[in-house]
Design brief:
The complex is a heterodimer of chains A (about 110) and B (about 110). Chain A has no helices and 11 strands. Chain A has about 110 residues and is mostly beta strands. In chain A, strands 2, 4, 5, 9, 10 and 11 form a 6-stranded mixed β-sheet that branches. In chain A, strands 1-3-8-7-6 form a 5-stranded antiparallel β-sheet, with no helix packed on it. Chain B is built from no helices and 11 strands. In chain B, the strands form 2 sheets. In chain B, strands 2, 4, 5, 6, 9, 10 and 11 form a 7-stranded mixed β-sheet that branches. In chain B, strand 4 and strand 5 form a beta hairpin. Classes of the chains: A mainly beta (about 110), B mainly beta (about 110). Chains A and B meet through strand 4, strand 5, strand 9 and strand 10 of A and strand 5, strand 9 and strand 10 of B.
């Protein structure tokens, strides 16, 4: 099974770009990588999902190198409201749909 | 469309009691997964059901159990409650295949006294 590792916490400032990296060894060919955002006392919310290379949506980008052993969530021009916990998830489709969650990165945005 | 609904939202129990939590997934979703989250901690995976079958289980004692009905609604049960079971219990639904997006409910906050 894959194991996901991400930093426990990060700080940044409003208007900056923030990159959060998740390491996931033993990732299989068909596994998907997804990132979620969670605010206190709420359920996590989907941010972005990818399989390889780069994916971009209206709120974030996801970079996945060719070896797929890591992925980087990029948040452009963060604001105070981006202060939250960010989780990476590897969905292992060939292992009876195992869901491997990272421990979460607490991102604090300062003014 | 309606989101994932969890009931009850809040409940208080005493040690030794049991509790049942309910999760209604988004219409058409066949997978429901459950998580325990204690203050300041990450998501601890409990189990996942797909089409009424438990596909995966996390490292929790047998006091934690679950089931899924034919309409995809799911319940989880915790027997012989302990103080350490106080937590936010989240469920998430998805189509259950191709690594699709998980949609989370707002959770059931359990306090064990």
């Amino acid at each position: 099974l894959a194991k996901t590792t991400q930093p426990i916490s990060m700080d940044s400032y409003e208007g900056q770009e923030v990159n959060i990296t998740c390491s996931h060894n033993n990732i299989a060919t068909n596994d998907y990588i997804t990132w979620y955002q969670q605010f206190p006392s709420q359920g996590p919310r989907f941010i972005i999902q990818g399989y390889k290379t780069k994916v971009t949506n209206e709120v974030a980008s996801l970079f996945i190198p060719a070896d797929r052993k890591s992925s980087t969530l990029s948040l452009p021009r963060v604001s105070l409201s981006d202060t939250a916990v960010y989780y990476c998830l590897v969905a292992q489709l060939d292992s009876n749909y195992q869901l491997i969650w990272g421990a979460g990165t607490k991102l604090i945005i300062k003014p | 469309k309606a989101g994932v609904t969890q009931t009850p939202r809040y409940l208080i129990k005493t040690r030794g009691q049991q509790v049942t939590l309910s999760c209604s997934p988004i219409s058409g979703h066949r997978s429901v997964s459950w998580y325990q989250q204690t203050p300041g901690q990450g998501l601890q995976f409990l189990f996942e059901y797909f089409s009424e079958t438990q596909r995966n289980k996390g490292n929790f004692p047998g006091r934690f159990s679950g089931r899924q009905f034919s309409n995809s609604r799911s319940e989880m049960n915790v027997s012989t409650l302990e103080l350490g079971d106080s937590a936010l219990y989240l469920c998430a639904s998805s189509r259950g295949a191709e690594g699709g997006e998980l949609f989370f409910g707002e959770g059931s906050r359990l306090t064990v006294l």
